[in-house]
Design a protein that fits this description.
heterodimer; A: 291 residues; alpha/beta; Rossmann fold; 2 domains; four-stranded antiparallel sheet; 12 strands; B: 438 residues; eleven-stranded mixed sheet; 21% helix; globular
Chain lengths: 291, 438
C-alpha cells in the first residue's frame, strides 16, 4: 500500500554489476518506500534474481557502478549479515539444504542473533518453540518441520513456506522474495501468499521477483516493473502484470524507448537495450507462457 | 624366542617393557589353548615390527613417535571415586564395566542388562566354550603387530555373552579411563551374540590426564544368525595419547551389525574395523566421524568382506580436519566370487578447514562377483559458499555460519548413534569444539 508519510527504504541509482566478468545489471534505478509492494517481472536471464541476490550481498556479484542506499546508508559496503541485521531479507529461490542442523536450531539461532542485535530479549528453546509454532500456523506448516534438518528433503512448497516462516520471525523492513511462487501448487501458493500479506504492513516493504503474474493475484502490488537486459524498462500498476501475462514481454521492449518510467532514468537507459536481448527475451517469454 | 630376547633388539622395545600383571586364571589348565595362543602371539610380536610408512597399510600414518616412548602397563588399580567418572556415565546403560589404565574397577561397574556382562578374568571359565570358539578367531594377529601385542599381553577386558533370543535390557557401556602418564593398556573385548539376540555395545575411551600414554585395544564381535549388534565407539583420549585399536566382526546368516565410531582425541590414533559377512543375507552399516585439529592424526581403516550372497553394507565416513591435523581413511569393500546380489554403498566425505590440514582418503572396491550393486564415492572440500551465504543472509556472522555448517557436517554421523544421551553429549562436545552456541 502507498502511504503519504512513508519513508524511503531502498534507493538504487544506476546500479551495474557483473558476475564472472559478464555484465548482468546495466543500470538499475528503483525506489522502494515503506508500506509498498513492488513486483519485478521479466523473462529468464533478465537479471531479476541477480538484482535480488545482490541486494542481500551475495559474494558472486561485483558491483561496477551506481549505488544502493538502505534507509539512506550505503548498503553495498555492508556484509550480508550486516544487511540482514539492518532489516534486509532475501527469500531464496532455491533455499539451501543443511543436513544435520535441526530447523528449530537454525531458526532460533537466526532469530536470537537479530534480537540481540536489536537490543531485544533472546528466547530460550522452550520459549522459542511456542513462538515459532504460532508463526507456523500462519503458513499452515506442520510443526514436524522444526525437528527436521533445515530444508532437507522438503518439497519445493515446503521450502518456500520455510522461507516465509523466516521472514515472519526476522520481521525485516525490506523483504525481497525471489521467485517465491515457483514450484508451488495452487494451494501452497494461496497459503504462502496469505502469509506474506499478513506480514506486509505500513512499516515494511516487499519486493516480489517473479516470472508469472499468478502470484500477483494473491499479493497485490503497488508497482509492477519489467526487467529486461539488466534494466527496469517499464513501470506500471498491477494492471501491467495482467497485460504482460496476456501479451508477453515483446511489446514492452519495443515501446521501451518511448515509455515513461516512474522510477527515474530507466526509460532512457532502456532505449539502449540490444536487439539480441530482445530476441532472447521474446523467445523465453513465449516458452514461459506456454508452460 | 624368549620375551627378553625379543625386547633387547626390537624396535618396539619401549612397548614391551614390563609385562602386565596377568590374572592367574589365564594360566588355568582348562585354558591351555589360551596359553598356547598367547605364547604364539608373543613370538609374532618378536617377529613383526612396528609398521612404518613403507608398509602400504600404514603409508599415511607414521607411528614412529610411539617407539620413542617407554610405556609401562599398570600393575594395580588406581582407585577412582565415582565422581571422577560421573561426566562419562550414560543413564541409559543397563551395564557398565570400567577399566582404569586397563585394570578392571569392580566398584564402578554393574550389570543389570539381563545378559552376561563381566570382565574377562572373572567370566573366562564360566564361558570357556564360547571363549575357545571365538577368542582370537576373528582378530588375527599373524600379520598385525599390535593385535599380537594385545593378545600376548592380555591382562583383562570385557566378555559379553548374549544368549540366543535374548535382548539386553539396555546398552552395555565399556568405559576405559586413562589416569597415568606413560601407561600402556591392552584392553580386550569379546562379544558373543547368540542366534536372534540383540544388544548395544558402547566402547568409550576417555582420559583424566593429558600426558602421553598408549592404548592398544582389540575387540571381537561374533554375531550368530538373525542376531543384531549395535556398536558405538567413542575415542576421546587425551591429546598426547597413542590409540591403536582393531575390531573384527563376524556376521552369520541374516545377522546385523550397525556401528558408529567417533574419533575426537589422541595425538595419533588408528582404528581398523573388519566386518566379515560369513553367511548369506548379512547386513552391516559402519559409519564414522573423525573431528580433529591441532597436530592430531586420525586414521580409520575399514574392510567389509562380502563372502556370501545377498549381503548388504552401508558406510558413511566423514572427516573434519582443522589446523595442521591429518585424517586418513581407507575403506575397502571386498565382494568375493559367489557373493551375488551384494548391495553395497560407501561414501567418504571430508571437510578441510585450514590450508595446512590434510586428508588422505582411499575408497577401494574389489568385486569378483558379476551380479552386484556397488556404489562408492569420495569428496574432499571446504564449506559450501552458498550455504555460508544463506546463513549470513539470516544475520549469522561468518564465524557462526562456518561453525554451524561444520557442526552440521559432523552431526549427520553423530545423529546415527542409537543412545540418546551419548548422542546429545557428543553434539555438545562438537558444538564446543566449533565454538558455537545453540
Amino acid at each position: 500500500m502507498i502511504f503519504e508519510d512513508s519513508n524511503t527504504l531502498l534507493e538504487a541509482r544506476g546500479l551495474r554489476a557483473t558476475v564472472a566478468g559478464i555484465e548482468i545489471l546495466k543500470g538499475i534505478d528503483l525506489v522502494v518506500k515503506s508500506g509498498e509492494v513492488h513486483a519485478i517481472m521479466g523473462p529468464n536471464g533478465s537479471g531479476k534474481s541477480t538484482f535480488a541476490k545482490m541486494l542481500a550481498g551475495h559474494p558472486a556479484y561485483q558491483v561496477t557502478g551506481g549505488e544502493v542506499l538502505f534507509e539512506g546508508k550505503n548498503l553495498l559496503e555492508l556484509a550480508p549479515e550486516a544487511r540482514a541485521r539492518a532489516g534486509v531479507f532475501l527469500g531464496f529461490q532455491y533455499p539451501v539444504e543443511i543436513p544435520g542442523v535441526a530447523n528449530s536450531q537454525f531458526l532460533r539461532l537466526a532469530y536470537n542473533t537479530l534480537q540481540s542485535e536489536r537490543g531485544r530479549d533472546e528466547l530460550d528453546p522452550l520459549e522459542f518453540d511456542d513462538f515459532v509454532r504460532e508463526k507456523m500456523k500462519l503458513l499452515e506448516m506442520n510443526p514436524d518441520f522444526l525437528d527436521r534438518s533445515v530444508n532437507e528433503g522438503f518439497s519445493g512448497g515446503e521450502k518456500k513456506r520455510n522461507e516465509i516462516l523466516q521472514m515472519a520471525l526476522l520481521t525485516p523492513k525490506l523483504a525481497i522474495l525471489d521467485e517465491t511462487d515457483s514450484g508451488l501448487d495452487i494451494d501452497a501458493l494461496r497459503v504462502v501468499a496469505g502469509g506474506v500479506n499478513r506480514l506486509s504492513g505500513k512499516d515494511n516493504a516487499i519486493v516480489l521477483v517473479t516470472h508469472y503474474q499468478r502470484l500477483l493475484n494473491y499479493i497485490e502490488p503497488d508497482y509492477v516493473h519489467v526487467m529486461e537486459g539488466g534494466r527496469l524498462i517499464k513501470t506500471g500498476g498491477k494492471d501491467l502484470a495482467l497485460e504482460l501475462e496476456a501479451r508477453g514481454y515483446d511489446w514492452v521492449s519495443e515501446e521501451a524507448g518511448v515509455a515513461p518510467a516512474a522510477n527515474g532514468a530507466a526509460a532512457a537507459q532502456a532505449a539502449n537495450a540490444t536487439k539480441a536481448a530482445k530476441v532472447k527475451a521474446a523467445r523465453v517469454a513465449k516458452g514461459g507462457a506456454s508452460a | 624366542m624368549s620375551a627378553a630376547a625379543a625386547t633387547n633388539r626390537h624396535p618396539a622395545a619401549g612397548l614391551l617393557q614390563g609385562r602386565p600383571h596377568t590374572p592367574a586364571v589365564f594360566s588355568s589348565p582348562a585354558l591351555s589353548w589360551l596359553g598356547r595362543m598367547r605364547s604364539h602371539a608373543l613370538e609374532r610380536v618378536g617377529a613383526l615390527s612396528v609398521p612404518t610408512t613403507r608398509d602400504e597399510e600404514w603409508r599415511f600414518t607414521d607411528v614412529s613417535p610411539l617407539t620413542r616412548h617407554t610405556f609401562q602397563p599398570a600393575r594395580d588399580l588406581a582407585v577412582l571415586p565415582a565422581a571422577a567418572i560421573e561426566r562419562f556415565t550414560i543413564p541409559e546403560a543397563a551395564a557398565r564395566l570400567v577399566f582404569v589404565d586397563g585394570v578392571y574397577a569392580p566398584a564402578l561397574s554393574f550389570n543389570r542388562a539381563g545378559i552376561s556382562v563381566g570382565n574377562l578374568a572373572a567370566g573366562v571359565l564360566a564361558h570357556a566354550a564360547a571363549m575357545e570358539a571365538e577368542f582370537g578367531r576373528h582378530a588375527g594377529f599373524e600379520h598385525n603387530a599390535f593385535a599380537a601385542l594385545n593378545t600376548a599381553f592380555l591382562q583383562d577386558g570385557a566378555l559379553i555373552v548374549v544368549p540366543s533370543g535374548a535382548r539386553a535390557a539396555g546398552p552395555v557401556h565399556l568405559l576405559f579411563v586413562a589416569t597415568r602418564s606413560r601407561s600402556a593398556s591392552h584392553p580386550r573385548c569379546l562379544v558373543v551374540a547368540g542366534a536372534g539376540s540383540e544388544a548395544t555395545l558402547i566402547e568409550d575411551f576417555v582420559s583424566l590426564q593429558e600426558e602421553a600414554y598408549f592404548t592398544n585395544a582389540v575387540t571381537e564381535i561374533a554375531i550368530a544368525a538373525n542376531a543384531g549388534i549395535a556398536h558405538v565407539r567413542v575415542q576421546r583420549e587425551g591429546g598426547a595419547a597413542f590409540h591403536i585399536a582393531h575390531c573384527a566382526v563376524s556376521l552369520a546368516r541374516a545377522s546385523r551389525y550397525r556401528s558408529v565410531s567417533v574419533a575426537l582425541g589422541a595425538g595419533i590414533s588408528r582404528y581398523s574395523l573388519g566386518v566379515l559377512q560369513s553367511a548369506e543375507a548379512a547386513e552391516c552399516s559402519i559409519d564414522g566421524l573423525a573431528l580433529i585439529g591441532a597436530r592430531q592424526l586420525a586414521d580409520t581403516h575399514t574392510l567389509i568382506d562380502h563372502a556370501l550372497p545377498d549381503g548388504v553394507s552401508r558406510q558413511l565416513h566423514k572427516c573434519i580436519v582443522a589446523d595442521r591435523a591429518h585424517a586418513v581413511f581407507n575403506g575397502k569393500i571386498m565382494v568375493r566370487r559367489g557373493a551375488q546380489r551384494t548391495d553395497s554403498r560407501q561414501s567418504s566425505r571430508n571437510l578441510v578447514l585450514s590450508a595446512h590440514a590434510r586428508v588422505d582418503t582411499k575408497p577401494q572396491l574389489e568385486i569378483f562377483a558379476d551380479d552386484v550393486k556397488c556404489a562408492h564415492g569420495a569428496t574432499v572440500g571446504q564449506l559450501d559458499a552458498d550455504e555460508v551465504f544463506y546463513l549470513k543472509s539470516r544475520g549469522l556472522s561468518e564465524e557462526a555460519a562456518r561453525a554451524l555448517l561444520t557442526y552440521a557436517f559432523g552431526a549427520e554421523v553423530i545423529e546415527r548413534i542409537p543412545v540418546e544421551t551419548l548422542k546429545k553429549r557428543l553434539e555438545q562436545a562438537m558444538l564446543a569444539s566449533t565454538a558455537l552456541q545453540l
